[in-house]
């Protein structure tokens, strides 16, 4: 009777050892990538595809995270938000140049010491810094965001965000551009009615 019991105990011990040495990736699934959003300005709209986004003073420590949130943006930080709708609002009241969706997994060092979550950073404090941080759900990214971490999103007529594929896709006769092409023609019709001469209807204001 002893040998079967010892055999069972040995088998159980072996299984326990195997479970302890399994890779942690097998024990739990990898977390989904995190995303941030930034309403870009007109200058960034021209350069982000090749240069990504860079802070005004990379590596500089003369400004604290709170200084940056308070408006002193000559710092090592880049302002982003966790809230896509908030990014849309900032975009609509700013340059209206578009919103970038940013994959934090593609930012080197982000998950180590490469960012500051201002909502957590201002916990236990009071004042305008905390108010702005919570309103904007602000996350400051240090130094640089590479271009391959960014995807351009824009607002369509229904108030939703969509990938702005037209920025990287050539126009073709078979593409879905007939709807957008119809708008100038429709807008030109009232102007043609008002024009006294056929030649005077060509000067439309943009």
Q: Which features does this protein show?
A:
4-stranded antiparallel beta sheet, 17% strand, alpha+beta, disordered C terminus, 206 residues, 3-stranded antiparallel beta sheet, 9 strands
**Straight-line N-to-C gap:** 94 Å
How large, in whole angstroms, is the Cα Rg? Answer: 27 Å
Query: Main sheet, how many strands, which sense, barrel?
Result: 4 strands, antiparallel
Calculate the mean pLDDT score and round it.
Answer: 75
Number of strands: 9
Query: Which strand-content bin applies to the residues?
Result: 15-25%
Instruction: Give the uncertain stretches in residue-range form.
Output: 157-206
Counted by DSSP, the helix tally is: 9
Describe the structure.
The chain is built from nine helices and nine strands. It has helices at 2-20, 24-27, 42-51, 65-69, 84-92, 110-113, 118-121, 128-136, 178-194, and strands at 35-39, 53-54, 77-81, 99-103, 115-117, 138-142, 144-145, 150-155, 161-163. With 206 residues, the chain is α+β, with helices and mostly antiparallel strands. The longest helix is centred in the N-terminal third of the chain and has 19 residues, at 2-20. Helices cover 39% and strands 17% of the residues. The strands form three sheets. A four-stranded antiparallel beta sheet has the order 1-4-8-9.
